[in-house]
Write a structure and sequence with these properties.
- It is rod-shaped, with a radius of gyration of 24 Å.
- The chain is an all-alpha fold.
- It has helices spanning 8-16, 28-48, 53-84, 89-104.
- The chain contains four helices and no strands.
- 74% of the residues lie in helices and 0% in strands.
- The termini are far apart.
- The longest helix has 32 residues, at 53-84.
Length: 105
Amino acid sequence: MTAAPTTHAAELEVTLSSDVALAGPEYAATIKLARDLAAELDAQVARDGAGQTRTIATYAGLLGTLRRAVRDEREARRRAGRQARPAGRLAKIQEHAARAAGGDE
Protein backbone atom coordinates (compact mmCIF):
# COMPACT_ATOMS: atom_id res chain seq x y z
CA MET A 1 0.00 0.00 0.00
CA THR A 2 1.51 3.35 -1.01
CA ALA A 3 0.94 6.65 0.72
CA ALA A 4 -0.87 9.40 -1.11
CA PRO A 5 1.51 11.95 -2.58
CA THR A 6 1.89 15.15 -0.63
CA THR A 7 0.82 18.26 -2.45
CA HIS A 8 2.65 21.57 -2.53
CA ALA A 9 -0.41 23.23 -1.01
CA ALA A 10 -0.42 20.82 1.95
CA GLU A 11 3.30 21.29 2.55
CA LEU A 12 2.90 25.06 2.34
CA GLU A 13 0.24 24.96 5.07
CA VAL A 14 2.64 23.01 7.29
CA THR A 15 5.28 25.68 6.66
CA LEU A 16 2.86 28.53 7.34
CA SER A 17 1.72 27.01 10.62
CA SER A 18 5.30 26.55 11.82
CA ASP A 19 5.66 30.08 13.18
CA VAL A 20 3.32 32.81 14.39
CA ALA A 21 5.42 35.42 12.58
CA LEU A 22 3.55 34.64 9.38
CA ALA A 23 0.17 35.34 10.97
CA GLY A 24 0.73 39.09 10.72
CA PRO A 25 -1.13 41.20 8.17
CA GLU A 26 2.14 42.34 6.58
CA TYR A 27 2.57 38.87 5.07
CA ALA A 28 -1.04 38.33 3.95
CA ALA A 29 -0.42 39.20 0.29
CA THR A 30 2.74 37.08 0.10
CA ILE A 31 0.98 34.12 1.70
CA LYS A 32 -2.03 34.48 -0.62
CA LEU A 33 0.27 34.48 -3.64
CA ALA A 34 2.19 31.48 -2.30
CA ARG A 35 -1.07 29.57 -1.78
CA ASP A 36 -2.22 30.42 -5.30
CA LEU A 37 1.10 29.33 -6.77
CA ALA A 38 1.10 26.09 -4.75
CA ALA A 39 -2.39 25.29 -6.05
CA GLU A 40 -1.32 26.13 -9.62
CA LEU A 41 1.79 23.97 -9.26
CA ASP A 42 -0.28 21.06 -7.95
CA ALA A 43 -2.68 21.47 -10.88
CA GLN A 44 0.21 21.51 -13.37
CA VAL A 45 1.72 18.38 -11.86
CA ALA A 46 -1.64 16.59 -11.93
CA ARG A 47 -2.36 17.70 -15.49
CA ASP A 48 1.07 17.53 -17.15
CA GLY A 49 3.12 15.37 -14.78
CA ALA A 50 5.47 18.29 -14.02
CA GLY A 51 5.35 21.93 -13.10
CA GLN A 52 6.40 24.77 -15.38
CA THR A 53 9.84 26.15 -14.62
CA ARG A 54 8.49 29.68 -14.30
CA THR A 55 5.90 28.60 -11.71
CA ILE A 56 8.46 26.58 -9.77
CA ALA A 57 10.94 29.47 -9.72
CA THR A 58 8.33 31.98 -8.56
CA TYR A 59 7.07 29.59 -5.88
CA ALA A 60 10.62 28.90 -4.67
CA GLY A 61 11.27 32.64 -4.47
CA LEU A 62 8.17 33.17 -2.35
CA LEU A 63 9.15 30.32 -0.05
CA GLY A 64 12.54 31.99 0.35
CA THR A 65 10.82 35.26 1.24
CA LEU A 66 8.67 33.52 3.85
CA ARG A 67 11.68 31.66 5.24
CA ARG A 68 13.60 34.95 5.63
CA ALA A 69 10.61 36.55 7.35
CA VAL A 70 10.45 33.71 9.88
CA ARG A 71 14.22 33.79 10.41
CA ASP A 72 14.24 37.56 10.94
CA GLU A 73 11.26 37.44 13.30
CA ARG A 74 12.82 34.66 15.36
CA GLU A 75 16.08 36.60 15.55
CA ALA A 76 14.20 39.71 16.71
CA ARG A 77 12.38 37.69 19.39
CA ARG A 78 15.67 36.13 20.48
CA ARG A 79 17.32 39.54 20.78
CA ALA A 80 14.37 40.96 22.69
CA GLY A 81 14.43 37.99 25.04
CA ARG A 82 18.16 38.30 25.57
CA GLN A 83 17.84 41.96 26.60
CA ALA A 84 15.09 41.15 29.09
CA ARG A 85 17.05 38.36 30.78
CA PRO A 86 19.11 38.85 33.95
CA ALA A 87 22.70 39.98 33.66
CA GLY A 88 25.32 37.62 32.35
CA ARG A 89 28.12 35.97 34.28
CA LEU A 90 30.53 38.91 34.07
CA ALA A 91 27.89 41.33 35.38
CA LYS A 92 27.13 38.99 38.28
CA ILE A 93 30.83 38.75 39.15
CA GLN A 94 31.13 42.54 39.05
CA GLU A 95 28.03 42.90 41.22
CA HIS A 96 29.43 40.43 43.75
CA ALA A 97 32.78 42.25 43.77
CA ALA A 98 31.05 45.60 44.34
CA ARG A 99 29.09 44.17 47.28
CA ALA A 100 32.25 42.66 48.72
CA ALA A 101 34.12 45.98 48.36
CA GLY A 102 31.20 47.85 49.96
CA GLY A 103 31.18 45.45 52.93
CA ASP A 104 34.85 46.12 53.72
CA GLU A 105 34.34 49.83 54.30
